[in-house]
Amino acid sequence: MSTELEEFDDIKTVVTEAELPKGERILWQVRPDWWRLALGAFRLKLVGLYFMIFALWKIGVTHHETGSWAQGVGDAATLLPALGVGVAMIMLYAYITARATSFTLTSRRLVMRFGIALPAQLNIPLGEIDHAALKLHADGTGDLPLKVGKIGRPSYFQLWPYARPWRLGAAEPMLRAVPDAAEAARTIAKALVAHQGGTRSVVAGNAGQSAPKSATGFAGAHPAAV
């Protein structure tokens, strides 16, 4: 079974045991954290920074023209409604996106279901996961990019927002904004070792760093016990 992306109108958000073939069982299942999704995939901080820079520019221009800091601040305050609407829309979209997404690890594969208007399902057999990485955030959430074979690999834009950033030519699926990501990494690593075999140690690290290839688990530049 190769990695494949399917799109259907009737795909349920969450995988259930009843859908799985005989002998396959669910080991782990989670939805992404919507707030971390807003901060990461939808760049909420950058939106706030953009408005801040524009507000400072407006204050400076008004002061230059009128000599009044108070009037400059007053003019910049007119941007607040637009900022509020923009932030609210991003947060709402992140929440809906997270609710329409689930990551499911079974004894044979990793299933990603996502999509609002057109639900999609990506099946990644455990045997086709070459290696993975873990990037932890301060709040315990994390991102887990997966390196898979080229056959049947979806494009970057088909996977977004669950594609590793800037890997346009060789898209890598990424479990983004995973709650309790360290524990999720341990569970996925154990499943990879059990399915693929091998005795090498399994580690988790920073996804932004280069990492040695491992056929049996997670790789990273700053290992942590798994």
Automatic annotation (TrEMBL):
Q: Which UniProt keywords apply?
A: Membrane, Transmembrane, Transmembrane helix
Transmembrane segments in this chain: where? 34-57, 77-98
Annotated region (Disordered), positions in chain:
204-226
**Which domain of life does the protein's organism represent?**
Bacteria
Protein name per UniProt:
PH domain-containing protein
Organism equals Jiella flava
